[in-house]
Design goal:
49% of the residues lie in helices and 9% in strands. The protein is of the alpha/beta class and 527 residues long.
């Protein structure tokens, strides 16, 4: 049934059960608070705490504190004196916070204060949770930590499954687990665009993975173009490579392309992509399992190879390139984690290929929040021109990255997100679908609703329309359509600035103005 992924259980718990397990659970961000509360139900309030974080004073901030102090006191200070004083301030506690998903579990019969003090995050005594004070890494060998994280993929899957539950006869499955992922056509999305019936230059992409989790970024796409994966196991390795540090660029990529002198081209299947690849390869070579496990743990934590490790590997005829590759790695992704991500990507890819409008509706509704409504309403040519413009901005940003400040960085992130969304919009239109403009009587508050062969753009896509005000506007509209611009403004409780924005987007199409209503009323009375 195609659900085996060759993941050794020992990477989770060790060969003798002597490794503290790392348990990560990804829930929809909308459901995450309920998952956290359930932990307290299971283990009890006195045994369950949020992982605390301590923010410290950074080097640059410490320098600023010193120079600001002397400036306020009208004193001069030399740079060398600032450099001398900075280390005394750097690293001092500045604020406390809360890990977004880490939950520490204390066994019954043990008081948390025996291990670490606890406090309210940022001294907020109204908070439901108390957090640990000492950095978690100081006691991670003694207490269990659950990472219960918020993730977009489960939110997207839930949204897509709503279509399945509403129209069961249109789908060959009823459960998430039954979405067919061992489909050759789905794999083709990751190595070309033919399966989408479009050409690369039409969608500004060599592969059809735009909008798919883990494979929609430019880095991942570049990897897909070079590797051209044909199997799920290759996709899992690519996921591992893209999440690791010093694993692909300057390492596995060079071996794969034959750039490392004396080794030739190394087959992709032989490369190290996930931490499990090391242990499995070494055991296949005859290295005793316990040694293989220790070598894997050392490499994946960025500690490299000790002289003893290297001696053992050479003793069992492990290839020189493999040993050299291990020495370069700073962090390796677990294969189970990569596999979970790829399974999610393949499930979503099924919808992209076979139920495109459901997929595009889900992506624009749940996976992005940076929109350019005017461009989306302008048709294929308008979107194509904007994508090219934003792509040039991205390249210019890369060349001037060192000169960029924080404001430029935050604005460039918005442009990057907008580019991702517009690239997918371009693909959607190239496949024969369209966007319907925002309309005060037809648009939803937050979701891109399917209408025939198109998606209706919602109010929240407009820059100045927040989610709360968009939902309020739709609630106030109710089942009675707005009859005029004034009716929409007064009954919908929106500002004149928003009215002006809606007018620019032609969102009042078909609605008369107040002076027109007066003329209609006069003519009716005359008749």
């Amino acid at each position: 049934i195609g659900d085996g992924y060759n993941i050794p259980f020992e990477t989770f718990l060790g060969f003798e059960g002597d490794k503290v397990p790392d348990i990560d659970l990804n829930f929809s961000g909308e459901y995450q608070p309920r998952a956290h509360s359930y932990c307290r139900e299971i283990f009890g309030i006195n045994n369950t705490f949020r992982g605390g974080t301590i923010g410290t004073i950074a080097h640059k901030t410490a320098e600023n504190y010193i120079t600001d102090y002397y400036a306020k006191n009208n004193k001069l200070i030399r740079k060398c004196e600032v450099d001398k004083m900075t280390p005394y301030i750097e690293g001092i506690k500045r604020q406390t916070g809360q890990h977004p998903g880490g939950i520490v579990v204390v066994p019954q019969g043990i008081d948390i204060n025996e291990i670490t003090p606890v406090q309210y995050p940022a001294d907020d005594i109204t908070s439901d949770w108390k957090t640990t004070h000492v950095d978690y890494h100081k006691f991670e060998a003694n207490l269990l930590k659950l990472d219960i994280l918020g993730h977009d993929d489960p939110t997207m899957i839930r949204y897509l499954m709503n279509f399945v539950e509403a129209n069961p006869s249109d789908f060959p499955f009823t459960r998430v687990e039954d979405i067919p992922i061992c489909d050759e056509k789905i794999i083709e999305l990751f190595n070309g665009t033919e399966v989408l019936s479009v050409k690369p230059d039409q969608i500004n992409s060599e592969v059809g993975s735009s909008g798919l989790p883990e494979f929609g970024t430019q880095l991942s796409k570049n990897m897909l173009v070079e590797i051209r994966p044909k199997t799920i196991s290759e996709l899992i390795k690519i996921s591992g490579l893209s999440h690791g540090t010093n694993v692909w660029q300057g390492n596995a990529r060079d071996y794969f392309l034959g750039k490392k002198e004396g080794y030739g081209k190394i087959p992709f299947d032989d490369l190290i992509g996930c931490r499990d690849d090391i242990m499995v390869r070494l055991i296949q070579k005859g290295v005793p399992p316990k040694h293989a496990f220790k070598i894997m743990e050392s490499v994946r934590k960025g500690r490299g190879l000790s002289s003893d490790h290297e001696k053992i590997m050479r003793q069992y005829n492990v290839e020189g390139w493999f040993i050299d590759s291990c020495k370069l790695i700073k962090y390796l992704f677990p294969k189970a984690h990569a596999t979970a991500y790829v399974i999610m990507a393949l499930r979503i890819a099924w919808f992209k290929l076979y139920k495109p409008l459901c997929f595009y509706s889900g992506f624009f509704s749940k996976r992005t929040d940076a929109f350019d409504v005017a461009t989306m309403q302008s048709g294929y040519d308008g979107i194509y021109a904007k994508v090219k413009e934003l792509s040039k901005f991205g390249k210019a940003k890369e060349t001037n990255d060192e000169d960029s400040n924080e404001d430029v960085s935050s604005s460039s992130k918005k442009y990057e997100k907008m580019l991702v969304g517009l690239q997918l919009a371009l693909e959607m239109l190239a496949r024969g679908y369209t966007f319907l403009p925002v309309h005060v009587n037809k648009s939803d508050a937050v979701n891109f609703v399917i209408e025939g062969n198109a998606l209706r753009i919602p109010f929240v896509a407009i820059d100045s329309f927040g989610e709360i005000s968009a939902k309020s506007f739709v609630t106030n509209r109710g089942n009675t359509p707005f009859t005029s611009i004034k009716d929409a403004a007064t009954r919908g409780h929106i500002s004149s600035a928003l009215v002006e924005k809606l007018e620019q987007l032609n969102a009042f199409e078909g609605l008369p103005r107040e002076d027109e209503i007066g003329i209609f009323k006069f003519l009716n009375e005359s008749n």
